Structures are given as C-alpha cells and as structure tokens.
Amino acid sequence: MPHLDDALAFARWLTGNRDDAEDVVQEACLKAFASIGGGAILRPRAWLLAIVRNAAFTWMAKNRPKWLLTPGDGTEMERLAGTGDAAFCETSIETPEAELIRKADAAAVREAVTALPVQLREVLILREFNDLSYREIADVLAVPIGTVMSRLSRARLLLAASIAEDHRG
After folding, report:
1. How confident is the model over 13-43, as pLDDT tens digits?
2. Residue 22: C-alpha distances to residues 5, 11, 16, 19, 155 (Å)
3. Does the first or last residue of the chain, that is N or C, have fewer Cβ atoms within 10 Å of its Cβ?
4. Could you write out the three-class secondary structure of the chain?
C-alpha cells in the first residue's frame, strides 16, 4: 500500500492514461497479493513496480492493436513541477508569468519524455520520477545495472537534445 501512488504514476506513464493505469494497477495488486507469501521481499517498491510493468505490457498487448504508447495526461510532471524543485521552478515567488513559464517547461519535458523509446522512457521515469536506485531499476526491468546506466544516459542525452531543440525553434 505505501507504494500504490508510485505504481499508479508508473502505470500512467506506460499506458498513457489514468483509467487504463488503474486497471493495470488493480491487476498488479491482485498478482502481488497472491504472491506475497512466497518469501521475504528485499525491495518491496521495486518488486511492486516490476509487477506493474509486467501487468501493463500484458494489458496493452491484449487491449491495444499495436504497442502504441500514447502520452500521459501529465499530472506527474505537474505534480513534480509544483514541488518547488529547482529543476522546474527557479523562484519561490509564483507570479502569473512564472507559473505560465513553469507549465510550459513542464509540458515540454512531458512531451520530450513521452517521445523517448519505451526502453529509455521507463528507465528515466523509474530513476527521475520514482527515485529508484540503479539496483532497484535493474530488478524491475530484469536487466544488468550496466544496461540501466547505459539506457539512462541515452535517455538523458535525448531528452536534453529534444528540449534544447524546442527552445531554439
């Protein structure tokens, strides 16, 4: 239960909307509950997010004609932008102009993240939005830590290039 918000946010990024994400998280929670007596869980948050990831891909394979991932509704980015994090908000005084700039920046980041290939997007989301360690991400994705580091590096480079190009154009 303490990781339910993270599970829902991750599912929203993967499925593209809240309703589908809720279905995925419900299915994932049922699977998690059924397997909870199987032994000690060392990283419960990573364990649950791995179940959510698998449930999301299974759900999308059944319910979508192709592996089409649509943009999310953006509430995760808006939530992060509203925290006062220096990456999204330079000033503590929120003027109408500053709020408009913050929202435009959050929208640009959201669009750039959504445009990333799925493998890069999920690593970036798990690290930057869910604050998972490299080890936890490796557990969620069932890949080596080196792969996580490589994908995260490429995702950050593509994201920075995309945002820089948006500001130039």
Report:
1. 888 888 899 999 999 888 888 877 767 777 8
2. 11, 8, 11, 5, 26
3. C
4. CCCHHHHHHHHHHHHCCHHHHHHHHHHHHHHHHHHHHHCCCCCHHHHHHHHHHHHHHHHHHHHCCCCCCCCCCCHHHHHHHCCCCCCCCCCCCCCHHHHHHHHHHHHHHHHHHHHCCHHHHHHHHHHHHCCCCHHHHHHHHCCCHHHHHHHHHHHHHHHHHHHHHHHHC
Quote the pLDDT of residue 94: 64
Distance between alpha carbon 5 and the CA centroid of its chain, in Å?
12
Tens of pLDDT, residue by residue over 76-114, are 444 433 443 333 334 345 677 666 666 667 777 788 888
